[in-house]
Amino acid sequence: MSVAVPAGFRALPLSLAQLSLAAVLKCGQSFRWSILSLNVPSNSALEYNLPTHEYRLCLRDRVVCLRQSPDTLFYRSVFPPLVSGDEETREAETLGWIRDYFQLNIDLVELYRQWSLADPIFKRIQDRFEGIRMLRQDPFENLISFICSSNNNISRITKMVTSLCRTYSPALLSLPPPAGTDLTEEAYHPFPSPSTLAAPEVTAKLRALGFGYRADFIQKTAAMLVETHGLTRNPKTSMEASEEWLMTLRHLDTPEARAELLKFMGVGRKVADCILLMSLDKREVIPVDTHVQQIAIKHYGFRGPTKSGTMSPKVYEELSCKLATVWGDYAGWAHSVLFTSDLKSFASYGLASPSGISISTPSTPGLTPDRSTYEPVDSPGVATPRSTSTPQSKKRKRGGPKRSGSKTPSSEMEETLAQLEVGVKVALPDESGQSTLIDRVKRRRRGTVSVR
């Protein structure tokens, strides 16, 4: 059933298998999208394929608004008053930006098919986590956002980036909420420029706003960009010279581009790799942290943590190369799907609810497992377990209870997770006879139950 185009919007035919806004805009790639509920009853949304949310992002000169049905992406752009130019031309520019930002020239369905043929683990989750693709973000915004990500979680990073924009970038315009909602009017701010964040007083102000040690990293990185590449603004693009220089890193090979990023304050290997993947077209790059290492250990036969608990550059490189061998040229994209599938805030994503209605949007974003339970050491962006974390294995005491059956803890967990992914509830008593195996698996993943 086709859906009527919302008033003021235009329609772009696009399936959820190619792009799922509900997943892509909430999985920790970008932190500036405003997500507004349209207050559509779930039964009506299901029966009539109605959009349930509106997504808004402030660019340099406009606010882009998106809605989505199962087979259509609806879009419109809102400009400040008295902006000159033909409406058709402006909307064509917005559509061009959408195609570039979401990289719609890349057939995601075909990539999913290739990854599923090469990887049985990916094949198990592909239907439930469809439509997750990499964004092609503005490199400067991406750089500063991921400096904020060090030892942090999605919710707090979002608050920091929002605070940064409101403090250092004048509002472009204000928009009322979608019709039929009781939200208040919201002001939309573009991302601030390098020259604005390079001012010496920025550090103290950001510390007062709760940025902690990241405040110094942000100011010094912006200052380094401005001092090295200048602040002349291109009137055609409204970009400063240092922003345009960051764009040129897209044309370097991966090691060269990474080496340039590692020169900045607050940028370690993992943060650099996030920027390479999410804004500099390095699609094969896999940002590695202890959370990704746990996925590799659990599913791909990678070795466990070192005795010290730290991730050495050698381990980082070995893990990255191993996963790239599995997934190929778009390994970073495939990694993002696996990463999203393992987030706590996506635990019910894509599963059928008790009423039989498929859950198509994730719950409120929570903590990313790597950022909420690990702290960086050595260099920003490379994480290591907290010293107070629960050990992952303990030797069984002589004469203690044995595990019933012949299944190993890992195979038992794998079987349970496989059933969880298709919404099957498994009832099996634990050691105390009180809880289900699902509960045990969840506790193990949180580190609260040791595996003997």
TrEMBL record:
The keyword Lyase is assigned to this record: yes
SUPFAM superfamilies, per database record: DNA-glycosylase, TATA-box binding protein-like
Bias type Basic residues, positions: 393-405, 441-452
Location of the HhH-GPD domain: 148-343
Catalytic EC class: lyase
The family this protein is said to belong to: Belongs to the type-1 OGG1 family.
Descriptive protein name: DNA-(apurinic or apyrimidinic site) lyase
